[in-house]
Every structure is written in C-alpha cells, then in structure tokens.
Please model this.
Amino acid sequence: MAKLDIITAPDPLLKVQSTSVEKVDDEVRRLMDDLFETICAAYNGVGLAAPQVGVARRVMAIDLSMGEETPNPLYVANPKIIWSSEEFLSAEESCLSIPEHSADVIRPAAVRVSYLDRDNEVQEMDAEGFLAICIQHEMDHLDGILFIDHLTAVKRNIILRKLTKTRKRTSAKAAVTAPIL
Model:
C-alpha cells in the first residue's frame, strides 16, 4: 500500500468524469488499498475517491472508524444509487480536497447503492445518516462534483478564492525555501 498525494481545489483534475472499471482486479484492489492508506494518513479523513488522487476511475474507499483500533473499510467500484429517500438531511461536510473549509449540504437522508466490492462481486447496501452522506459525497467526486458545487455561487467563489490565495502563498514560500542546486 502507498499513501497518495491528494489533489486540492481548484485543480481541474477534480472536475473530470471518471470511467467505470471493467472488473475489480489486482490493479483496482491496489488502488482501493492506496485510497484506504491515504485516508488513514489524513487527519479526520473518512472517505476518498480515486479522482482526488488523480485517477479518473469509479473507485472509492470509506472508513467511518475514525481512528478506532479496528478500521472498517468499505471498498466500492462503479457505485450507482438505485434508490434515495424523499427525506433530506442537512449536514456539515468537509473534504480532503478542500482543506480547512466546510459547509452545510442538503442530501437524501438514506440511499440504496449497487456496487462492485473488493472481490468483484455485485453488492447492494442501504445506508442512512452519516454513511449515506459519505457515499453521496464520494460518488459526487466520481462525476467531477465537489461539495462546494452544492453551495450558492457566492459561497463557492469565496472558498475557491481562499484556496487559490493559500496555494499561491504556499508556492511562493516553497520557492523561497527551496535549495538552490
């Protein structure tokens, strides 16, 4: 397993549509493991989709154990929501690709998802509450959608401007401290 670099907004790679995997083979399982390893290394990370690490494949990993002794990863390929509740839930969301920002997003409170598991078996699962939110959030990434895309244009633009400003400061600081060869 390898910890991967997480892409941050406003990188255009985060807006790319992901392609389905034909089957969950060793290469896809390795990607799932790497996504899980990257979640574990991230502060408060609970989910990660392949596009967040520059891989435009419909693969994601979720682990709601949040630092407990026993991780409980959920590995998902080619997820499809086949049912969603008429009840909605507003919850504060954050994202590893949008560091230090969060906002309330409204989503269906429960979903039923069809997907391929780590063993290439078709599965269905019902999820509600926090798990349902995580699944929908990560699935959005597979379609090039960020949680800030659910916000008003004004709120989204404020966050993007702050991220761009932070990126410029970080790049300038790195250039100043970089060794001269």
